[in-house]
Design brief:
The complex is a heterodimer. By secondary structure, chain A is α/β, with parallel strands linked by helices. In chain A, 32% of the residues lie in helices and 23% in strands. The mean pLDDT of chain A is 86. Chain B contains five helices and six strands; from the N terminus they run ααββββαβααβ. The chains are: A alpha/beta, B alpha/beta. Chains A and B meet through α2, β2, β3, β7 and α5 of A and α2, β1 and α4 of B.
C-alpha cells in the first residue's frame, strides 16, 4: 500500500498546459486563413457536376456568381420547383443580368475589367434551356469570360 | 513605498489560463463558418453576340466534328451514336489525324468542333461532353509541349510557348443554338 502511495507522490503533479494556447492559436490561424465567409446565402440547390479539365479562379474580386438550380424546399411554396437563377441574395429574372454585371463592374478598377469572369454555378440536373438563356444574356451584355463551376473528378 | 509594492504585486502576472478558452472559442467559430473554397471550373470564352448564326455548312465536311446531344442525354458524333467515355479518344484522332485519313481533319488548324444540344439536355451531360472535348485538346497540347519543350502543357507555361502551341492546334468550338424538342424541367 505504501509502495503505491509513494510512487504517486513522486510523479510530477500536473502536465503543463502553458503551450496549449499556442497550439490552439496555430489551429485558429490556419482556419482563419482558409475561411471564406459566404457572401450570400444559397436559395437554390446547386450540386455542380464533376469534370477533370479544371482551371482555378484566381482573383475573387474579379468574379461574379450566377447560381441556377431548383429553389430549396422552403422557397418552393412561393417560387415553385422549376429551376431558377439567383443573383446576389435573391431570385432574379434574365432581364436583371446586365444590371447585376454592371453593379459588379463598377467596383473593379478599370484596368482589370477585361479580366472579369462570370462563374456559373449550375446544378447538374438542370436542363440546358435556362442555362442557354443565361449564356445568351451574358453574350448580349458582352460578358464573354465564363467559368462553368465543377468539382474535380479523378480521370 | 507600500503603495507601489501593492501595485507591483497586482500586476505581477496576468493569469493566462483563460487564454486557451478564448482561443478555443474563436477556433470553434471559424471551424463552423469555414467552407473551404472550391472555386474551380471549366473556363470558356463565349463568342461575341451576333444576330445571325455562324454557317458551318460552308466548311468542308471532313473538317467538322459535329457533336449532337439530345434530350435523352445521348450523343451523336458525326452521325454515329457514341458513349461519352469514347469521345475524348475519338476527338483526338479526328483532330490530329495521325494516319492521314480522308474523312478526318486536314490538319489541326482546320478542325472545328461543332457542339449542339437540346434545351432538354441535362447540364451535367453537357458539361461532361464539353469536358471531354477540352480534355482532348489538353492532351494534344501536352503531347506537343512535350515534343517541343519537354514539359507538360499547363497555364503556367510562358505566354510565348502557350501561344505557339495554341497556334499549331487551336481550340475552335462552335456552339449552335440548341434545338427544343425535349422537355425542360
Amino acid at each position: 500500500m505504501s509502495k503505491f502511495q509513494k510512487k504517486r507522490g513522486k510523479t510530477s503533479p500536473a502536465i503543463s498546459t502553458a503551450s496549449l494556447p499556442d497550439i490552439v492559436f496555430m489551429l485558429l490561424f490556419f482556419f482563419m486563413v482558409v475561411t471564406v465567409l459566404r457572401d450570400s446565402e444559397l436559395m437554390v440547390k446547386v450540386s455542380t457536376p464533376f469534370a477533370s479539365e479544371l482551371t482555378k479562379l484566381e482573383e475573387k474580386s474579379l468574379v461574379n456568381y450566377l447560381y441556377i438550380g431548383k429553389p430549396l424546399q422552403k422557397y418552393q411554396k412561393v417560387y415553385g420547383t422549376k429551376p431558377r437563377m439567383q443573383l446576389g441574395d435573391k431570385f432574379a429574372d434574365l432581364r436583371e443580368i446586365p444590371l447585376f454585371l454592371e453593379r459588379h463592374k463598377v467596383k473593379v478598377p478599370e484596368a482589370k475589367r477585361p479580366k472579369i469572369t462570370s462563374s456559373l454555378r449550375v446544378d447538374g440536373e438542370v436542363t440546358m434551356g435556362i442555362v442557354q438563356d443565361v449564356k445568351t444574356a451574358l453574350r448580349k451584355s458582352n460578358q464573354l469570360k465564363v467559368n462553368y463551376s465543377a468539382k474535380k473528378s479523378s480521370k | 513605498m507600500g503603495k507601489t509594492s501593492t501595485r507591483d504585486r497586482m500586476s505581477n502576472e496576468i493569469n493566462a489560463g483563460s487564454m486557451a478558452d478564448i482561443a478555443f472559442l474563436l477556433l470553434i467559430f471559424f471551424l463552423v463558418t469555414t467552407t473551404i473554397a472550391e472555386d474551380k471550373g471549366i473556363t470558356v470564352k463565349l463568342p461575341v453576340w451576333s444576330e445571325e448564326e455562324p454557317d458551318i455548312t460552308k466548311l468542308k465536311k471532313r473538317n467538322v466534328y459535329a457533336v449532337l446531344v439530345n434530350a435523352q442525354n445521348q450523343l451523336l458524333v458525326r452521325g454515329e451514336l457514341m458513349r461519352v467515355e469514347d469521345l475524348r479518344n475519338n476527338a483526338k484522332e479526328f483532330i490530329s489525324n495521325p494516319y492521314g485519313r480522308e474523312d478526318l481533319a486536314e490538319k489541326p488548324t482546320r478542325a472545328i468542333i461543332s457542339l449542339k444540344n437540346d434545351r432538354g439536355t441535362e447540364y451535367g451531360t453537357y458539361l461532361g461532353v464539353y469536358n471531354e472535348l477540352k480534355g482532348a485538346y489538353n492532351d494534344l497540347w501536352t503531347d506537343l509541349a512535350q515534343k517541343k519543350y519537354g514539359v507538360d502543357y499547363s497555364d503556367d507555361l510562358p505566354v510565348a510557348w502557350k501561344k505557339a502551341i495554341r497556334e499549331e492546334i487551336p481550340f475552335v468550338i462552335s456552339e449552335a443554338e440548341p434545338t427544343s424538342f425535349g422537355e425542360e424541367n
